[in-house]
Amino acid sequence: MRDCFAALLDVTGPRRWKPHPHAYRYAAERAGVGPAEAMLVATHPWDVDGARRAGLGGAWPRRGTAPAVYPPSLTAPTLAADDVGELARVLA
Q1: Bigger pLDDT: 73 or 1?
Q2: Helix axis angle, 45-53 relative to 21-31, nearest 10°?
Q3: How far apart, in whole angstroms, are the C-alpha atoms of residue 67 and residue 80?
Q4: In this model, does residue 42 exceed pLDDT 90?
Q5: What domains sit in the chain, N to C, each tagged with a CATH number?
Q6: pLDDT tens digits, 2-33
Q7: Dihedral angle computed from the Cα positions of residues 4, 86, 53 and 71, in that order, rounded to the nearest 10 degrees
Q8: Residue whose C-alpha is closest to residue 69's, from 88, 85, 45, 87
């Protein structure tokens, strides 16, 4: 299955755990784009917040998770959708 991916990234590259900004910037760098050209898609608001604080876009597919309201104390996502299918349609 590894041949289905351009890169496999883990903490051994950036040597920082998310939500440290370097972890997200490292992923963008490995993809050959600047942070502003990248977007993290995550169902965990803390992860979207970390990406946004690092300069990336952040998409939050709610997937029916509770609470369905994004925590106001975190940096808002660039996009929010009810599920991954809706997110794909919005991005297309």
Answers
A1: 73
A2: 70
A3: 14
A4: yes
A5: 2-91 (3.40.50.1000)
A6: 888 888 888 888 888 899 999 999 999 999 99
A7: -130
A8: 45
